[in-house]
Amino acid sequence: MKEFIQTLKNIWSLKELRDKIVLTLLLVLVYRFASYVSLPAINTAEVGNLLQHYKNQGGNQQGAGLLGLLSSFTGGAFSRASVMALGIMPYISASIIVQLMGMAIPYLQKLQKDGESGRNTLNQITRWLTIAVCLVQAPSYLTSVTQFFLPYSQFASAYYIDPNSVMFWLPSIIILVAGSVFAMWLGEKITDKGIGNGISILIMVGILADLPTAFYQEVLTQNGKGGLGSIMILVEIIFWLLVVLLAIVLSVAVRKIPIQYVSRAQARGGVSRNLMDGARQWIPLKVNAAGVMPIIFAQALMFVPGLLTKVDESNTFLAGFKNVFSWQYNVLFALLIIIFSFFYTAITIPVNQMADDLKRNGGLIPKVRPGKETADYLDDILSKITLPGAIFLSIFAVLPAVVHGAFVQTDRFALFFGGTSLLIMVGVILDTVQQINTYLLNHHYDGLMQSKLSRSSNL
């Protein structure tokens, strides 16, 4: 405990690091404040009553899980009809589109190789594409807020302006687009001037904002059962901490490939020293190299099967795809995650380029020839470790449905037992802590996660 307190003092003593952390916290506070500013034409109090009435009518079992999932990424702004209702997700969608288009469009491939100038151009393309995505998502969101609840005539006071009029739609669309662009600007400012990846931090903050309320609702529900409720709450907390620990292991697990670098004199053949005199390093291949991207891709596609219910609303099998806790939804979800894990890993880890770079810099893998054999070796190892990584990732993704059916009573709290929410939280926290550690180690301080074991291994 003393070492942890000393580490906090070290962080505060570094002016540059302290200023970055303070700025990050202030921008996050602005983002959270903006998420409570409602659209001018909507009475948020009545919208809250609408949502509660919808749940009481059985909507919670027929798709509120999807709405709750979307709301969790925006810290509740989605369900509050806030100016930040779209949140940062349009930017994430635009980034994914640009990344995938980079595989097929030569111009984008050239920009990816042009260094800083190419990266700036790609960022500008992503920003404009974000606005285009917002122009599609904003009307869809307003449709869900208006047409979805219009049948409940007793809640007509939820709208200050006729929801079918141009005076409602045009300003609301402009405000929603502006809110999403503002969130994008905040994220980029955090990345440039603050600490950590700003976009990821805003998503994490939105997710964490819903955790206290979700836990409180779970406590109330469990306590309604009597004395057994307190025991179940304790069991849930212990199990949740175990899941968090396993998520950390999945995020940091790597397979180290030993690399032997030949010295320049050895490369020229001027000396006859043993090859092992060269510098030895490692290539760390992550078990879950794709991160949460397979879940995000699969999540985007999982809205499609739910639309099929409109073709045949009486089909109970198809209706299951609208519920994130149904077995139909989760079986398809897990299969898509495994497929996308291999797909995303294949396009983001260029083994041929890695083999060429090793050969160019005088590096080699022991007992493996440089060039094509090295690329085939890396590809084989990557395929072997991606399979268990993809399986574990799919297990984490469907875990909320498992615990919801086993012992967790509320939907909102069950979503924190895995899936995108938990992995994003763990990944962002680890990345931010790593950046803080870098600042501390550069000033000869121990990092937040520095252990005696790691210190002894560096000796």
TrEMBL record:
Q: Which domain of life is it from?
A: Bacteria
Protein family per UniProt: Belongs to the SecY/SEC61-alpha family.
BP GO terms, sorted: intracellular protein transmembrane transport; protein targeting; protein transport by the Sec complex
Q: Taxonomically, what lineage is the organism?
A: Bacteria, Pseudomonadati, Bacteroidota, Flavobacteriia, Flavobacteriales
Q: Which GO terms describe its cellular component?
A: plasma membrane
Q: Where in the cell is it found?
A: Cell membrane; Membrane
Indicate yes or no for the key word Cell membrane: yes
Function, in words: The central subunit of the protein translocation channel SecYEG. Consists of two halves formed by TMs 1-5 and 6-10. These two domains form a lateral gate at the front which open onto the bilayer between TMs 2 and 7, and are clamped together by SecE at the back. The channel is closed by both a pore ring composed of hydrophobic SecY resides and a short helix (helix 2A) on the extracellular side of the membrane which forms a plug. The plug probably moves laterally to allow the channel to open. The ring and the pore may move independently.
Looking at the UniProt entry, the stretches that span the membrane are: 21-42, 88-108, 128-150, 166-186, 198-216, 228-254, 287-307, 327-351, 385-407, 413-433
Q: Which UniProt keywords apply?
A: Cell membrane, Membrane, Protein transport, Translocation, Transmembrane, Transmembrane helix, Transport
Which protein is depicted?
Answer: Protein translocase subunit SecY
Does the record carry Cell membrane as a key word?
A: yes
Assembly information from the UniProt record: Component of the Sec protein translocase complex. Heterotrimer consisting of SecY, SecE and SecG subunits. The heterotrimers can form oligomers, although 1 heterotrimer is thought to be able to translocate proteins. Interacts with the ribosome. Interacts with SecDF, and other proteins may be involved. Interacts with SecA.
List the source organism.
Epilithonimonas lactis
Classification via InterPro entries = SecY (IPR026593), SecY/SEC61-alpha (IPR002208), SecY_CS (IPR030659), SecY_dom_sf (IPR023201)
